[in-house]
Amino acid sequence: MSLLARLAPHLPYVRRYARALTGDQTTGDHYVRVALEALAAGDRVLEASLTPRVALYHVFHAIWLTSGAQLEAPGEEGGDDASQRLMRIAPRSRQAFLLTALEGFTPSEAAQILGVEFGEVERLIAEAQAEIDAELATDVLIIEDEPVIAADIEALVTEIGHTVVDIAATRTEAVDAVARKTPGLVLADIQLADGSSGIDAVKDILARHDVPVIFITAFPERLLTGERPEPTFLITKPFQPETVKAAIGQALFFHPRNTRKAA
């Protein structure tokens, strides 16, 4: 199989990453092109010990770093909120965050790409997460019928700087809560106290308001059916607090509206 054929499935994604990293499509594409030219000329090779996708991103980073690593490209006026926020995150933390949150690499794979130790990647991700949490503090609605679990979620949401405006145990309570105050984020269980559905509650909310939603449930199979658009953020119970915190940061960061305190 030719080099191009091996890399073709991954090129749209490395271009996406390069654009997010540099803040500019032209600049990002330039670095991707230089990386591909280096591979074609034999100046760089894909490491055999890595998967083709990880190896491609590794080469991209090597080229980008030796070319001056010009992260701060001229900003595009009117760029989306996520792009502008990305440019405010410290460069190295930005890389680790994008590789894991946007590109879906594991921290171990991100460490291979960046050429650093696993612990360093975890530290960088934590730094990025802290910056995101501080900037995107918002009002949160929790839809959860188990009081102990709701209290746990409320505590971790508050810990990272957000405000819980209501906790709803049923579909009706959730809709009423949103009528009183529009949240900037919804954390929802699926099976609720009166037999109603968190899925239906979220549908009711999204019909009126554009807010990011994270499902936290013991029944993920009810959402992963392939019969309808599946949620971007789905966490299985029992959950790890750090998993929920990371999902909150990612959901707020990449949602296409300003998620500071909702009106």
What does this structure look like?
The chain is of the alpha/beta class. It is 53% helix and 9% strand. The protein has twelve helices and five strands. It has a five-stranded parallel sheet, sandwiched between helices. α11 links the parallel β3 and β4. α6 crosses α8 and α10 runs parallel beside α11. It is elongated. The termini are far apart. The relative contact order is 0.10. The C terminus is likely disordered.
Which helices and strands appear, and what pairs or packs with what?
Elements: H1 3-7, H2 11-22, H3 25-41, H4 52-66, H5 81-86, H6 91-102, H7 107-114, H8 118-135, E1 139-143, H9 147-159, E2 163-168, H10 171-180, E3 185-188, H11 198-206, E4 213-217, E5 234-236, H12 241-254
Parallel strand pairs: 1-2, 1-3, 3-4, 4-5
Keywords:
single chain; 263 residues; alpha/beta; five-stranded parallel β-sheet; 12 helices; 9% strand; elongated; disordered C terminus
N→C terminal distance: 55 Å
* Topology pattern, helix = H, strand = E: HHHHHHHHEHEHEHEEH
Measured as a percent range, the helix fraction is 40-55%
Quaternary status of these chains?
Answer: single chain
